[in-house]
Amino acid sequence: MRLLFLGDMVGKTGRTAVWEQLPGLISxxxxxxxxxxxxxxxxxxxxxxxxxxxxxxxxxxxxxTGNHVWDQRDALAFAPREERFLR
Length: 87
Known about the structure:
87 residues; 4 strands
């Protein structure tokens, strides 16, 4: 099994890099499972539903979080219904 775990995806620059590069990495390395830490994806403070969905669309299988996850109120609304959003 080929696994990729990306640490903190921080802010717009980090999101753009992941969203642009991840599909190619998955293809080039024949990755089976991709984990992205998204707790700082919204400008370094939490994650929004839109960012979560874009990250999944780019090829992440799950998005992990940490202590900053609740910095965006949006996370409180969508996190409970998303199986691929891990806390």
